[in-house]
UniProtKB/TrEMBL annotation:
InterPro entries: Glutathione-S-Trfase_C-like, Glutathione-S-Trfase_C_sf, Glutathione_S-Trfase, Glutathione_S-Trfase_N, GST_alpha, GST_C, GST_superfamily, Thioredoxin-like_sf. PANTHER family: GLUTATHIONE S-TRANSFERASE, GLUTATHIONE S-TRANSFERASE A1. The gene is Gsta1. One of its GO terms (molecular function) is glutathione transferase activity. One of its GO terms (biological process) is glutathione metabolic process. This is glutathione transferase. Its EC number is 2.5.1.18. Residues 3-83 form the GST N-terminal domain. Keywords: Transferase. It is an enzyme of class 2 (transferase). Belongs to the GST superfamily. Alpha family. It comes from the Eukaryota.
Length: 221
């Protein structure tokens, strides 16, 4: 096994994208092994690589890790993106869990049937602007630091930035009423490792298009 983490997933965002973001933010180079067909997935399932028969799967430090949150926790701990003590870690966990909830909504938008898309979009905008973003805006105001927790970069910052950018892809002016989140976005985007990941040609994946859905269905269903 090479020294670089190896990511097994399809060539797209999905649940692996937050893992790509964390590794990139930590300045860790990684390899990707893309699932192209149902047979690729079946092979991993049959050779015992997937503990619960599903991806994402990351080969790291001699382990074949599955379950997105477990992988994220491991990477965040290993690369000092998980706060300095138990209380900071609890805050990071709370902020990340909420980001994941919003991220799930954003990720599943492409898969909505045509007659549900408009309502789903309205739900995204409503929850982003009335439930989630006001909380992060208040956290930044009350905390008064460049970062959400403590005064150093954590996985909460990385994953919030990922989701803010996804939300803007969905609705470009979605941050209009959140000046602190706008400045947070600019500030975190400018951290050298993250700035590099945001450049064209990086391993960051583009938004999923409707034309990609049938190919995914063939791999996973």
């Amino acid at each position: 096994m090479s020294g670089k983490p190896k990511l097994h997933y399809f060539n797209g965002r999905g649940r692996m994208e937050s893992i790509r973001w964390l590794l990139a933010a930590a300045g860790v180079e990684f390899e990707e092994c893309f699932l192209e067909t149902k047979d690729d997935l079946t092979k991993l399932q049959k050779d015992g690589s997937l503990l619960f028969q599903q991806v994402p799967m990351v080969e790291i430090d001699g382990m074949k890790m599955v379950q997105t949150r477990a992988i994220g926790n491991y990477i965040a701990t290993k690369y000092n993106l998980y706060g300095k003590d138990l209380k900071e870690r609890a805050l990071i966990d709370m902020y990340v869990e909420a980001v994941i909830d919003l991220n799930e909504l954003l990720m599943t938008h492409t898969f909505q049937p045509a007659d549900k898309k408009e309502q789903h979009f309205a739900t995204i905008v409503d929850k982003a602007t009335n439930r989630y973003f006001p909380v992060y805006e208040k956290v930044l105001k009350d905390h008064g630091q460049d970062f959400l927790v403590g005064n150093q970069l954590s996985r909460a910052d990385v994953q919030l930035l990922e989701t803010l950018l996804m939300a803007e892809e969905c609705k470009p002016d979605i941050l209009a009423k959140f000046p602190l989140l706008q400045s947070f976005k600019a500030r975190i985007s400018n951290i050298p490792t993250i700035k590099k990941f945001l450049q064209p040609g990086s391993q960051r994946k583009p938004p999923l298009q409707e034309k990609d859905v049938p190919k995914l269905m063939k791999i996973f269903h």
